[in-house]
Amino acid sequence: MTPELSREQLRYLALLSEQYPTVQDVCTEIINLKAILNLPKGTEHFMSDLHGEYEAFTHILHNCSGVIREKVDLAFRNFLTEGQRSEICTLIYYPEQKLKMVKKTCADLDEWYRITLLQLIEIAQLVSSKYTRSKVRKAMPEDFRYIMDELLHTQAHEDDNQRVYHSKIIDTIISIQNADEFIIALTILIKRLAVDRLHIVGDIFDRGPRPDSIMNLLMDHHAVDIQWGNHDILWMGAAAGSEACMATVVKNSVNHKCLDMLESGYGISLRPLTMFARDVYADCETVQQAVHKAIAVMMFKLEGQVIKRHPEYEMDQRLLLHQINFENQTVTVEGQVHPLTTSYFPTIDPKDPYALSPEERDIMDGLAEAFKQSAQLHRHVEFLYAVGNIYKCFNQNLLFHGCIPMEENGAFTTITVNGAQVKGKKLMDVFEKIARQAYFSSDPEEKQSGCDYMYYLWCGKKSPLFGKDKMTTFERMFIADKETHAEPKNAYYNLYNQEEICEKILHEFNLVTSFSHIINGHVPVKAGKGESPVKANGRLIVIDGGFCRAYQKTTGIAGYTLIYNSHGMRIVSHQPFGSIESALEENQDIESHSDFFETQVERVMVMDTDIGNDLSDKIYDLSQLLSAYRTGLLAPRNK
Hints:
Shape: globular
Strand order of the largest sheet: 7-3-2-1-15-16-17
Structural class: alpha/beta
Number of strands: 17
Strand content: 5-15%
Distance between the termini: 27 Å
Oligomer: single chain
Number of helices: 27
């Protein structure tokens, strides 16, 4: 008996019947979905804190943190040497470049094509084995879909006619000089199937030379989500119109010598700023130092304006320009007087220290217009909004970049935001809403408030993305005493070693299973000093291991990534990457070490995932539709 359905339920089933108009359509889809539920879950790949390191990111993205090498070894360990297997891997990572090199050195190119195509087909068969044929077909490049489908589903026991048929397909591909294109298409398919979903746990921008190029790669990825880091939110704030964020973006780019990215990548000219700095800051030894000082002073003024507008930020201790004693060349920081390394600040008016000078105002107006007009920047920022969040719950894991602000006693910190007191999950939800309003709101007051909060999320005292009590940029630039440079971390970073604290956080986000984890970035793991990325008895994993070259002396490695497949979770540590050129010429891969820290007793299936939950819901709806057809509540339609 079909349970009595409400009017809304019948209306929904009627809409569903448009997609599945006959009894057989419904039955076929239920069979298909139930089969998918019993397949192994797809592989998830987690990366964080990329910080513009384009070449290292590109290589790890292409080798899927070693997954490709594992598949090649599995297929050919008993048949090919290590050097030959490395050659195949490099071809998969960089097909266009490798093909050009092969053509210059290969004596019998047709034979190389034949062998290589057969090898790539075998690897593609291996990585596609845990997906439905339909999903594999959809992942294939459209131009080669029919041919690939034929070749990938050959069987070992085929008769002679079938073997000749498949051999002739390969012969034809080579004879009509289409082998290069087909090889490239196969490598795309292999990489597409090796990783089902990519998670970027924050901080794509700043420090490294090409975050813009990383964004272009991510926009081409088949399935990616991003948890915003404080460096990402800074650029998003700049694109939204926050002048404090714009000045900080420029200062960071100057400081890390990434001007080509800013000017060529995003079309933001620094010429007026450079000319101004060269004329005004004659105390600096180089033009680069002058530009850095000029934009830093503008930044301190603009962020001071934000802080003064918002006493609820509780950041008044960061208002330092009015604490400068120009006669004594000192500054008072939190009640302590410190000598300055320089007191030459010609644009600071002691009577109104946070006001831009007329010349600075002109420069800032020009920069604001350049940020507003940068089509590439807005293309990237809109993508960050489209696939990004402050946090994400996915397959029973909680992903966020920084921290959940906490007190020393383990309580969630309460913060007043727009007049409301929020903490824990609610705090994260409120900040995400505000971050979206900053960019998309048409209300001027709401937009201005949102832009100010983007600055707060970048470096605010209780920001979940920053996770520290203060950012000591002024002290590091102008005070020699290194004790003033310290940036105390939020209590979260001590507490997250405790399993019960991690479980409390997971429960706050409604994740209550025994195999739920927190996956975190932001604070580099000092692996060289014995620190482990796996904390709280496996409940929390920190995957910031030092992608950024500036951190690698501290971390001792060049980054962590995380792989979560149907067999369990493993952390992968990477050594510094040489260059794409050396990878091509010498078949060099990133030296990586992989450790399973959680192995599933039973293989994780699609039914155990978020996608499985969605499919189960759909199966239930289809079962209701099938019952409605069979009991006469709805009439099947003729196709």
